[in-house]
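User: I'm writing a tutorial on reading structure tokens. Could you give me a worked example: one chain, its sequence, then its tokens, then a sentence or two explaining what the tokens reveal?
Assistant: Sure. Here is the example chain.
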Amino acid sequence: MALTKVLITVKTYPTLSAKYDELVCTAGFREDGTWIRLYPVPFRKKSYNEQYKKYDWIEVDLVKNTSDFRPASFRPKSIDSEIKVIGHIDTVNNWEERKKICLGKVYYNLTELIAEAKNKDICTSLAVFKPTEVLDFYAEPVERYWDKDKLDKLKQLNLFETNREGKFAVVQKLPYKFKFHFKDYQGTVSHMMIEDWETGQLYWNCLARHEGNEQKAIADVRKKYFDDFAKTKDLHFFLGTTAQFHNVAPNPFIIIGTFHPKIEIQGSLF
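And here are its predicted structure tokens:
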């Protein structure tokens, strides 16, 4: 492909990779409003100028990710391909420019979306979804540490060695899964995990502020996502599937980001 322009809207929390040590799944929109997934990207090893933010326009040389059957999946031509940040869309006029690109197609029926994912001719793996009602936001405990055998193997391969600045410190593993409990417009109730990098970082920031008190940190994260986003904002979810579970899980989607402008109240015409 020629250089591709992508508006970044999704950065997931980093995971460990046996080949590249630590990877981030990135997704966003092309200029025509279609979704595209970029994976793998060793984001934290990129230079400062290449470390894009959400709603940055980037330009990168992409090729189809042939190890991933999902049509929206691409990867940088090489792991060292330059990623150039060429612009940014801010929140002026209640996210007006962001809405033009991100809200071109919105799903309200989760059953319909899952059927599209399972349909091999369509194979939808990225989508914008609008919940009809958010019932709750909560945390579930999980393993607290990365798998020791995997970490030891990566260390043996020197994958954590970086440049002359020293060794690469792997990101902390989140000790909780954060989940939304919501309904779609047909009344279908779902519990869905969110893997947005910002969710994980918010937890760590709150934990530091509360001097290690995990329950207070969780309460603060819930306050942001439930009391603020779900109750006072026009909340949409960015949803994505994983290649591993796309064809086998009853619901292959997880929440990979949120879109949350203010609610716009239409004024009276009379």
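What the tokens reveal: The chain has five helices and 14 strands. The longest strand covers residues 3-11.
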